[in-house]
Amino acid sequence: MLLEIRDLWVHYGKVEAVKGVSMALEEGGVITLIGANGAGKSSILKAVSGLEKPSRGEVRFNGQVITGRPAHEIVGLGIVNVPEGRKLFKLMTVKENLRIGAYLDRDRARIAKGIEEVFDRFPILREKQNQPAGKLSGGQQQMVAIGRALMARPKVLLMDEPSLGLSPVMIDEIAALIRELRASGLSIVLVEQNASLALQLSDHGYVLETGAIALQGRSADLLTDPEVARAYLGA
Description:
The chain is 38% helix and 26% strand. It is an alpha/beta fold and 235 residues long. The strands form two sheets. It has a six-stranded mixed β-sheet with strand order 6-7-8-3-9-10, sandwiched between helices.
């Protein structure tokens, strides 16, 4: 198993944000975490990526325990976060934001090649490479955020609400991109409030309620589950 989370607990003071969560991601697979705001989805991603220290449990990557390691070390291992809200440097140019994604790399030629690969994937960013990131549309900013993560040449991509605030057309583009990334061999953990989209893009789904897993299973099965449909799919 490429990425394993075992009995993970995360506290913020006395608040239990994540309660005994266990999940697994196979190489080349896509898993999704769905649930309402405050269900613990983002806290799990932060714990995996080293941005929050779990109070209990462990995270394993390629069989190696990485729980509590600094975020830059986890990026170096190949686990990279695309944060909710994109978190771009809005006064810096598109190209400068992309370079930040390769901050652990000292090979200028490899960085330049990575930027070209991002531009090949997102041609509109080539056109806007010298514009401040804050001047771009929401969809274009999401492209920059994903491109920045790809600059680190990840093995696992942690995507936190990539469709949030985007137009239906741009959501379709992001969905197509996730399928392309998966086809290229990348493994993905997808956090989404858009449950229907997330379950269509993933192999396995985990439904979170108040920090704990309420339901899990094959995404195709969850899509047709009456309980999931009633709570998350608007049925």
